[in-house]
Give the backbone structure.
Amino acid sequence: MKRLSLLAAAAAFALGAGAAQAADPLKVGFIYVGPVGDFGWSYEHDQARQAVEAEYGDKVETSYLESVPEGPDAERALRQMAQSGHDLIFTTSFGYMNPTLKVAKQFPDVKFEHATGYKRAANVSTYGSRFYEGRHVIGLLAGEMTKTNTIGYIGSFPIPEVVRGINAAYLAAKSVNPDVKFKIVWVNTWFDPGKEADAANALIEQGADVIMQHTDSPAAMTIAEEKGIFAFGQASDMKQFGPNARLSSIIDHWAPYYIERVGAMMDGTWESTDTWGGIDSGMVGIGEFSDKIPADLAAKATAAKEAIIAGELHPFTGPINKQDGSAWLAAGETADDGTLLGMNFYVEGIEGELPK
Amino acid sequence: MDMSALNPVAIAVALIVAATPLVFAAIGELVVEKAGVLNLGVEGMMIVGAIAGFAFTQETGSTTVGVLAALIAGALLAALFAFMTQVLMSNQVATGLALTLFGLGLAAMIGQPYSGIPAPPFPELAIPGLSTLPVIGPLLFAHDWLVYASLVLTAGVWWLLNRSRAGLILRAVGENHDAAHAIGYRVVAIRTAAILFGGACAGVGGAYLSMVAAPLWVEGMTAGRGWIALAIVVFASWKPWRAFLGAYIFGGVSIAQLNLQAMGVAIESQYLSMTPYLVTIVVLVIISADKARARMNAPACLGRPFFAAG
């Protein structure tokens, strides 16, 4: 399967690349981990790609490869993209980190932008969003809205990005509901609607009445709608999949960043940077609140969002202990970005072992 | 750990939902391979069935029409494969792979207007009186009709292959197409029929995914299930009930591991994620352990093109 989708992607790409020789527009490539029609993560990246085209018209030419598996196969896709004359390549999943670095070394004249990673080079920038800020807001909602005090969480892979989201959501939920429990299921995939639906069902069976997810398809939302419980849109709004189930959503807005970076390439000011934008930068959007949310709770969540934007509230503010009881943050202390970016532990109170 | 939190009935019901698409796809492919044709396009036919079923249900409001459309769509894609491999004599492996790629792309294209719409509910065929019984009610008598259909399909294919004259002919074509041809059987026609049947089954399997299991349409939603179905056929050594069992083991272990995780069992999730593949392979290999017999069971002409010489 993996090899196949790559083959398909390569074929599609070869077709796309053939047509483009005429003028000399800036060639920008994108590599997606899922299909552009996943209505989640890859969909939002592709929306931003289209925004880049709309912004710069025929001064830019974009192409993309979808459903490129993470790991060694990504390297071939990347190399092909670099060889075919792309000037700037966005690699939009955590698992592309090492392949990106490796290919970037072989093509020093091509610029790379890697999403959600932490390794950089002279021609490799990293960018990501502080989704944990959004997780804080929806965590507050989840903690108050659950009646069974059980929140189900569908995780993809136990990488810092996902672990950080779990911790942020848990701390927020716990702050409004001391009895809240998180049940976490790892599906070890970003995109498999069938499996995501199965995971949602398993969590509901274990008493969860609010589902959070860190996977890319809206399958869990449809299950939540069917079973009459609550869920949150992930990456895109997903309202159409759960008109009653959806409480709010975390929406990825990549367009402002992509437009800025492509612009920097055009006027020659591009350099390797590390961008980590939060709600304040517009990169993390909070979807509108459902009318199922009581007004006072909605006000509380809105206040938290405003405080985060104003820089008055950090979702990781001490005292916080790690899961094993050892101290992490003292009272009033906030987490530094380095620890957040490499987060590989649960905070105190979360049950279950974090897969290594 | 609190084992009482594990509700075996709910798990069994989830298992059936996870296994049913695999049963359809695997049984269909099994018939194709028994006729001596290797069609690696199962994934493509499944996804085309998934979008056809979803789209026609949306347009007509009838899930029955949806399933029928999936069946036809799967068969149509299979017809393409049949034309290429049986008439134009193209390589079966390459054509099958191409069929998967084509199916994935075609489904994504057709599916664009259907992204972002929830599916209408699929009616359950609750048997009055029996479906409300504790435990066995939800377990045996409260499924959608496709689940029962998958059971009937498996039994029917078993009967066809092992107890009917038509099955004997089909197997003869798969074992030795030259001999079958020599005594007057129309190898190409029989194989084409088998390929269409396999496509129809895969189409329904895909539709089950988009209409029941995860009731929505998103690109690539079969996520490799066609390949699992193909593997199940081989490891089941081409026996329908073993393929059925394989699908249920795979589905069951997938569901069980998710439930175990939700309960907080301290096993690393990577190992749990591996278990469906491992357990299915191990079990099917063990029951097919007699190498000589397993080899006998593989259709001798599997994947070999047939030229009518003279």
Q: What stands out?
A: The mean pLDDT of chain A is 89. Chain A touches chain B through 54 residues (CB under 8 Å). DSSP finds eleven helices and 14 strands in chain A. Residues 7 and 68 of chain A are 9 Å apart (CA to CA).
